[in-house]
Amino acid sequence: MRVVGIDHIGIVVNDIEQSIIMYKTLFGIEHIRTVTLTEQGTKIAILQGHNLKIELLESANENSKIAKFIKSRGTGMHHLAFQVEHLQEFIRNIGKQDIKIIDGIKKGENMCDIAFIHPKQTENVLIELCQKPR
């Protein structure tokens, strides 16, 4: 069980196209791709800079978790993602410390296995755990 590093920062936005332009203009960060995860009701833009990856998250429908997040908290920082080597083993080990995963393991952007730790257990920071495809 090992954390490899920070994989990305997730930021909730109202207008993904405007946000892509802003990050490119201000910071010179390259837009890699935009995908829609229909099952999650989320549109995701991947931005890449030197040693930095950002996921911009926009709601694809009014019932998505992102839409609910915006209604309750507004836009801004959504989550911090840690890349781990063996996600299932990592989850088993943190489960021994009564750390619970929200909604189990899912497929994320780029076919990574992902899981989220509830922010009530991590000082109000939503933590995503992700494992790259092998």
From TrEMBL:
Residue ranges annotated for the VOC domain, each copy included: 5-132
GO BP: any one term: L-methylmalonyl-CoA metabolic process
UniProt keyword annotation of Metal-binding present: yes
A molecular-function term among this protein's GO annotations: methylmalonyl-CoA epimerase activity
Keywords linked to the UniProt accession: Metal-binding
InterPro entries: Glyas_Bleomycin-R_OHBP_Dase, MeMalonyl-CoA_epimerase, MMCE/EMCE_epimerase, VOC_core
Superkingdom per UniProt: Bacteria
PANTHER family in UniProt: METHYLMALONYL-COA EPIMERASE (PTHR43048), METHYLMALONYL-COA EPIMERASE, MITOCHONDRIAL (PTHR43048:SF3)
Entry's family note: Belongs to the methylmalonyl-CoA epimerase family.
Protein name, entry field: VOC domain-containing protein
Naturally occurring in which organism (per UniProt): Desulfuribacillus alkaliarsenatis
